[in-house]
Amino acid sequence: MTIAQPYLLFLADAPHAKTAFGVRHWRPDACAAQFRYPGSTLDLGLPEMTPDQAAAAGVKTLLIGAAPAGGMLPDRWVGDLVAAIRAGMDIASGLHARLTDVPELVAAAKAAGRRLHDVRHPTENFTIGGFERRPGKRLLTVGADCAVGKMYTALAIERELRARGVAADFRATGQTGILIVGSGVSVDAVISDFVAAAAAALSPAAADDHWDVVEGQGSLFHPAYAGVTLGLLHGSQPDAMVLCADPSRTALGDFDAYPQPDLAECIALYTDCARLTNPDARVVGISLNSSSFGEGEAAALIARTEDRLGLPCVDPVRTGVAAIVDRLGVKGR
Question: Where in this chain does the record put each D-glutamate N-acetyltransferase-like C-terminal domain (predicted)?
Answer without folding.
Answer: 134-325
